Amino acid sequence: AGFFEHVAFAPLDAIFELTKDYNADTSEHKVNLGQGTYKDGNGEPWVLPAVQGAKEKIRDANHEYLPILGLPSFRHLATKLVLGDSGPAVTEQRVASCQTLSGTGALHLAGLVLYEALGPSCTVYITEPTWSNHRQVFEAIGFYVQSYRYYDEATGKLDVASLEQTFEAAAPGSIFVMHACAHNPSGCDPTQEQWRRLATIAKSRKLFPLFDAAYLGITSGDYDADAFAIRHFVNEAGLEAAICTSFAKNMGLYGERVGLVNFITQTSAAATAVESKLAQLTRVEISNPPAFGARIVAAVLGDAELCAEWFRNLSTMSGRIAEMRQQLYDALVRLKAPGDWERIIQQKGMFCILGLPLDRVLQLKSKRLELSPSPWISILILFT
Ligand code: PLP
C-alpha cells in the first residue's frame, strides 16, 4: 500500500464551494449571498480609489524580502490605526505587532502564541453561530473549543444574557474570540454599554479577549466607531488582549493577504518577548510575509490625502450595504411577504441571518427564475 492510502478525504470548505457553485451558475439573475466580498452597483469587484492611488505611489518598489515581522511602516501605521494614536498601550510600548497572511493568518499566529503562553489546557470560547473557520483554526492548534449561544433566533437579536453568563462562568485564563464589529454571520454586535460591561467581567474573571477585526470601518463607515470595543478593552479597561486585523474587506485587498496581529501586554518587556515569538513562528512558517499588500496599506495610511480618500471609500461601501438592506426590506414589506424582516435592516455589516428554513434556502440557491426582471423579484418569489 502507498504511504497515503490511510488519508481520509477532508470535507470541502462550505463557503468556497458555494462560491464555486455561484461562478458556475449561468443565470443572469444570480446573486451571490455567500462569501463576504464587497461588489459595486454592477456586481463587480471594486478597486478602492485610495488603493489605486497607493498603487501608483509604490509603482517603483523592488521585490526584495521584507523583514520577518513584516514592513515596519505598515506595522507602525496599522497598529496606531487600530488602537488609536494616543492610547496608553501604544505610548507605553506595550504592543507587539507582526504582519500576517490576512485575518486568518493573524488568528492562527495569535493562537500559536497563546497556546504556548496560556497553556494547552485553556479553553477557547467562540460564538454560536460564528465564522466557519474559527473552530478549526483553534482546534488545529490543539485547543479545546467551546461554543456558546450568542444569537437569539426567535428575536433576530444578540443574546446578551447568554454572553454575560458565559463570561461569568468561564475559568480564568479562558480565551474569548470576539468579533470586533459586524459579527459574522449574525450582524448583531453588543452596544457600547454592553461592551463596557463585558470588559468589566473579563477583567474581574481574568479572561483573555482575542478580537477578530475583519470589518473595521466598513461596518458603520466610521473607523473609530467600529474600533470602539477594541479600544475600550485595551485603552480604557486596560486589559491584555490579542487583535487580529484584516485589510481584506475594508481595503478590498482580499487576495493580497495583508493582515496584522497585535498583542497588548502589561509590560514593555513582555511585548518585546511576545514579538520575538511572533518572529520565530513566522520564520518557521513563511520566513517573511508578502510585500505588495502591506506597501499599499502603508501608502494609504501614511498619506493624509489617500487616507482621507480611504475614509470616503469606507463610507461609500458601508452606505451601499445599508442601502441594499433597506431596498430588500422595503420590497419585502411592500409585497407583503409573510414574516418579520426587521432584522434585515437591524443587523449590521455584510451578513444577515434571514431565518429562512433550509428547504427555502436550497430553493433559493437552485431554482431558476429566468423570466424575473430583477434579482430582488427572484428572491421575493421564493420568500413568499
Ligand atoms: N474573521 C471573520 C469574522 C471573517 O468573516 C473573515 C473573512 O470572511 C476573516 C476573519 C478572515 O479573512 P481574511 O483571512 O481574508 O482576512
Automatic annotation (TrEMBL):
PROSITE patterns, sorted: AA_TRANSFER_CLASS_1 (PS00105)
Task: Read off the InterPro entries from this record.
Answer: Aminotransferase_I/II_large (IPR004839), Asp_trans (IPR000796), NHTrfase_class1_PyrdxlP-BS (IPR004838), PyrdxlP-dep_Trfase (IPR015424), PyrdxlP-dep_Trfase_major (IPR015421), PyrdxlP-dep_Trfase_small (IPR015422)
Q: Which cellular component, as a GO term, is one annotated location?
A: cytosol
Task: Output one GO MF annotation.
Answer: L-aspartate:2-oxoglutarate aminotransferase activity
Query: What are the names of the required cofactors?
Result: pyridoxal 5'-phosphate
Keywords, ordered alphabetically:
Aminotransferase, Pyridoxal phosphate, Transferase
Domain Aminotransferase class I/classII large, residue spans: 29-359
Reaction(s) this enzyme catalyzes, per UniProt: L-aspartate + 2-oxoglutarate = oxaloacetate + L-glutamate
Q: Which EC number(s) does UniProt give?
A: 2.6.1.1
GO biological process entries: aspartate biosynthetic process
Q: Does the keyword Transcription apply?
A: no
Q: Sorted alphabetically, which CDD domains does this protein's record hold?
A: AAT_like (cd00609)
The protein's matches in Pfam families, at most eight in alphabetical order, are given as:
Aminotran_1_2
Miscellaneous note, as given in the UniProt record, is: In eukaryotes there are cytoplasmic, mitochondrial and chloroplastic isozymes.
Q: What is this protein called?
A: Aspartate aminotransferase
What is the species of this protein? Didymosphaeria variabile
